[in-house]
Amino acid sequence: MAYSILVDGKKSFSFSDVDPAEHGNLDKLQAEALTLELAKEFSELIDLLYASHKNSFLIILQGMDTSGKDGLIRHLLSYVNAQST
User: Fold this and answer.
1) Confidence at residue 29, expressed as pLDDT on a 0 to 100 scale
2) Residue environment code for 9-42, b if the CB has 16+ CB neighbours within 10 A, otherwise e
3) Disulfide-capable partner of 31 in 26, 52, 65, 75 (CB 3.0 to 4.6 Å)?
């Protein structure tokens, strides 16, 4: 199972509570397979969100220079239909 953090607004959250070395006991192949699976699900959810004409989504990335934010955005948005943005 992947390592995840749920921020639901019911309790406070601090990045200092998160171990940056945590990898969810996944090896590289497992992580790649999970990433592909989640990217497909993300694409389907974005299509549904766009079709509803009611909501939008916001992604907040925090990281130092060269931490991979640009690459993450390019990779993530490669699964989104450009006409729906």
Assistant:
1) 93
2) eeeeeeeeeeeeeeeeeeeeeeeeeeeeeeeeee
3) 26
CA distances from 84 to 1, 45, 51, 78, 79 (A): 31, 12, 9, 12, 11
Q: Look-up: residue for tokens 């909501």?
A: 55
Six-digit token string for 11: 């309790």
Confidence of residue 3 (pLDDT cuts 50, 70, 90): low
Question: Are 1 and 26 spatial neighbours (Cβ–Cβ below 8 Å)?
Answer: no
pTM for the full model?
Answer: 0.61
| Residues 61-84 pLDDT 10s | 888 888 888 998 888 888 887 776
Give CA–CA dist 65/62, Å, rounded: 10
